[in-house]
Specification:
Layout lengths: L18 H24 L4 H28 L9 H8 L2 H19 L17 H5 L6 H31 L4 H30 L12 H26 L8 H32 L2 H13 L1 H18 L9 H29 L14 H22 L12 H5 L4
Helix pairs in contact: 1-13, 2-3, 2-4, 2-6, 2-7, 2-8, 2-12, 2-13, 3-6, 3-13, 4-6, 6-7, 7-8, 8-9, 8-12, 9-11, 11-12
Length: 412
């Protein structure tokens, strides 16, 4: 660093949460509430699946951000210091996702999860299901509730601790290394727990909607979707702040790094999508192919559309170095990836949840209408409000972070 003059950290002021943005977020939440109420009053078949799907999407954004933050600490990464406050703010949404998930479970589990029905594990019952009975050691209501509460205590607990220690770094230069080391230790613990809970929560919240079906790759596949969704939202927030004149420390090198993650994990997601499908298609086992038969026969446009949006567009657009440094292009791609993975989550949640609404062999199929989109708008409004609120409560960069100098001079 001897060749450079000392570069001052300039984002020492918090983000100013504009009144206009607050009103937009509140209006979006009202739209979401109207859509949810309308769906409960008119379209009973899809209401719980729609709520569960949308809650999981924004849970994925917050959880993926907390995972990425933990990785930065454990790997002692320097370049990402100037974006950590965004990841912290995103992680604070986890408490809301947890509350919604608990409400959805207790109010709607009977319509979402067939394995919760009476008599399925009793050999004397006419409703007896040998497959579900064989899984009842794991898929039972008390154990599910314990796991669900455990997930959110772990996830939000670590998000809270990362934030708390980060704010402590701002306050005192002398002890900032101590707080940094604390976050490094917390990050290591979180990554171990995340490795387990990201898979088991995918089995619980999504795969158990169709309890006869299973895939050993499902945890990995869900993780890839979680991480890309969070990277897309990180890029959008980062781009927005740059357009508004915040974070002058963030340069093309930082943008390129986030863009590389978006590109790389889009390819990783594609690999898992294809591998899961190809192995099941090739083996052609009755207990496995039903999952894809339902989606091919009745949701083919959405199913293939999600694949092409989430693979072809990032592959073509984000391949070059220059594309990963263009702010408007990155902002557009973050929106495109959000839409693409929204469709992918639709395919993961809705077809299975609609089976529960089918009666006497008459299948009911999901659809995308204004109520589904309106619900997403409502959740997005709440997520926007939470993130901007927390960005406004502390400087946009961690003032006394031990690796700040490295981040300011990051060049690739």
């Amino acid at each position: 660093m001897g060749h450079h003059e000392h570069k001052e950290v300039t984002s020492l002021q918090p983000y100013i949460f504009p009144q206009r943005n607050k009103m937009i977020a509140i209006v979006m939440m009202v739209i979401g509430l109207i859509a949810i109420v309308a769906q409960f009053m008119t379209d009973h078949s899809q209401k719980w699946g729609n709520l569960l799907m949308n809650n999981f999407i924004f849970l994925a954004m917050a959880l993926g951000a907390t995972f990425f933050l933990a990785v930065q600490y454990v790997a002692e990464v320097g370049w990402s210091v100037v974006i950590k406050r965004i990841l912290e703010a995103m992680g604070q949404y986890l408490i809301f996702a947890g509350v919604f998930m608990i409400v959805i479970w207790f109010a709607g589990h009977h319509e979402l999860y067939h394995w919760t029905h009476e008599g399925l594990t009793d050999p004397k019952s006419p409703e007896y299901d040998a497959i579900i009975a064989g899984k009842s050691g794991y898929l039972n209501t008390p154990f599910f509730i314990i796991r669900m509460l455990g997930y959110f205590i772990i996830w939000y607990g670590f998000a809270y601790l990362f934030r708390k220690n980060s704010l402590a770094m701002d306050a005192n230069l002398a002890t900032s290394v101590d707080y940094y080391n604390r976050n490094k230790r917390f990050g290591a613990a979180f990554l171990v727990l995340f490795a387990i809970t990201s898979s088991t929560s995918a089995w619980d919240f999504i795969m158990s909607i169709e309890p006869h079906w299973f895939s050993t790759m499902f945890g990995w596949y869900t993780f890839a979707g979680i991480f890309i969704t969070s990277l897309a939202s990180l890029m959008f927030i980062l781009s927005y702040l740059k357009f508004k004149g915040y974070l002058p420390e963030v340069n093309g090198n930082h943008l390129q790094d986030v863009g590389k993650f978006m590109f790389a994990f889009s390819i990783f997601w594609t690999y898992l999508w294809f591998a899961q499908f190809m192995l099941i298609w090739y083996a052609n086992l009755p207990e496995e192919v039903t999952y894809f038969m339902l989606r091919q026969d009745h949701y083919r446009g959405i199913w293939l559309g999600a694949f092409f949006i989430n693979f072809i567009l990032p592959f073509i657009v984000l391949m070059t170095r220059d594309s990963k440094r263009r702010l408007p292009l990155l902002m557009v791609m973050s929106v495109v990836l959000f839409i693409g993975h929204w469709l992918d989550y639709f395919i993961m949640f809705i077809p299975g949840s609609m089976i529960q609404q089918s009666h006497e062999g008459h299948l009911v199929f999901g659809h995308i209408g204004w109520m589904e989109i309106g619900t997403t708008i409502g959740f997005l409004g709440l997520f926007m409000f939470v993130v901007q609120y927390h960005l406004s409560k502390a400087p946009l960069v961690i003032k006394n972070h031990p690796m700040m100098e490295e981040s300011l001079y990051h060049v690739i």
